[in-house]
Specification:
Helix content is 40%, strand content 15%. It is an alpha+beta fold. InterPro entries: Aldolase_class_II_sugar_metab, Aldolase_II/adducin_N, Aldolase_II/adducin_N_sf.
Length: 223
C-alpha cells in the first residue's frame, strides 16, 4: 500500500514540473512544499537538483523546524521559510516560492500589484502585497511572509527585491496562486505601459471574491 507520505512525495515532485510548464523558474530556482496532514512534517524539493532530475524518491521529508527526517540530499535552501509558515499558519497545507519574471519586476520596485482585473479580485481578493526585504539564513523571510499574509485575502506575497511566496490549502492551490500571480503581474505591467489601469470598486472586488471562493466551479474539486 502507498503511504500518505509517498503520495505527497509524488504530488510535490509532479507539481515542480508545473513551475517549469508555466515558465515560472530557471535553473534550480523555485520550490514547492506540502504539509503532511496531521503530522509536524513537510515534503520539499532537494537543494540544487535540476528540475529534470526531480523524482518522488528524492523529495526531502523535514520536520517543521526544517530539520531533515528522511532524504539523501539537503533540502531546499528556502526550507526554513516554508517551515516557519507551516508553524504559524495551521490552515496552510502548501507553500510555493518562485522568482517569476513579471512578479519579480514588481518586487524589485517594492510595489504591490493593484487589484484592477476581475480575475485578480477572484483569486486574490485584493492587491498582491509586498513583504519586507529579508535575507536568507534565519526566520526573517518566514516572518515577513506570515506578517504580510495573515489577515490578508491574497495567497501571494511579493517579498521586496526577491520574489514570490504563495500559500494554499494544499500544494496544488499554492502552485495555482503562483501561476495566477505571474499572469496578473504580467498583464497589469503591460497595461501600465499605456496608462494607469482603472481601479475596481471595493464593493465589486468583495462580491467577485466571495462568488469565486464560495459559489464558482466544482465545489468538491481542489481549486
Ligand atoms: Zn528566492
Amino acid at each position: 500500500m502507498t503511504s500518505p507520505i509517498d503520495l505527497l512525495r509524488r504530488q510535490v515532485s509532479d507539481l515542480h514540473q508545473e513551475l517549469v510548464r508555466y515558465n515560472l523558474v530557471v535553473w534550480t530556482a523555485g520550490n514547492v512544499s506540502a504539509r503532511v496532514p496531521g503530522e509536524d512534517l513537510l515534503v520539499i524539493k532537494p537543494s540544487g537538483v535540476s528540475y529534470d532530475e526531480l523524482t518522488p524518491e528524492n523529495m526531502i521529508l523535514c520536520d517543521l523546524d526544517g530539520k531533515v527526517v528522511e532524504g539523501e540530499h539537503s533540502p531546499s535552501s528556502d526550507t526554513a521559510a516554508h517551515a516557519y509558515v507551516y508553524r504559524h499558519m495551521p490552515e496552510v497545507g502548501g507553500v510555493v516560492h518562485t522568482h517569476s519574471t513579471y512578479a519579480c519586476a514588481w518586487a524589485a520596485r517594492g510595489e504591490a500589484v493593484p487589484c484592477v482585473l476581475t480575475a485578480m479580485a477572484d483569486e486574490f481578493g485584493a492587491e498582491i502585497p509586498v513583504g519586507p526585504f529579508a535575507l536568507i539564513g534565519d526566520d526573517s523571510i518566514g516572518r515577513g511572509i506570515v506578517e504580510t499574509l495573515q489577515g490578508h485575502r491574497s495567497p501571494a506575497v511579493l517579498m521586496k527585491s526577491h520574489g514570490v511566496f504563495t500559500i494554499g490549502k494544499d500544494a496544488k492551490a499554492a502552485v495555482k496562486a503562483a501561476v495566477m500571480c505571474e499572469d496578473v503581474a504580467r498583464t497589469v505591467h503591460i497595461s501600465r505601459q499605456l496608462g494607469e489601469p482603472l481601479p475596481i470598486a471595493q464593493d465589486d472586488i468583495d462580491r467577485l471574491n466571495y462568488r469565486y471562493q464560495n459559489v464558482y466551479g466544482q465545489q468538491s474539486a481542489a481549486r
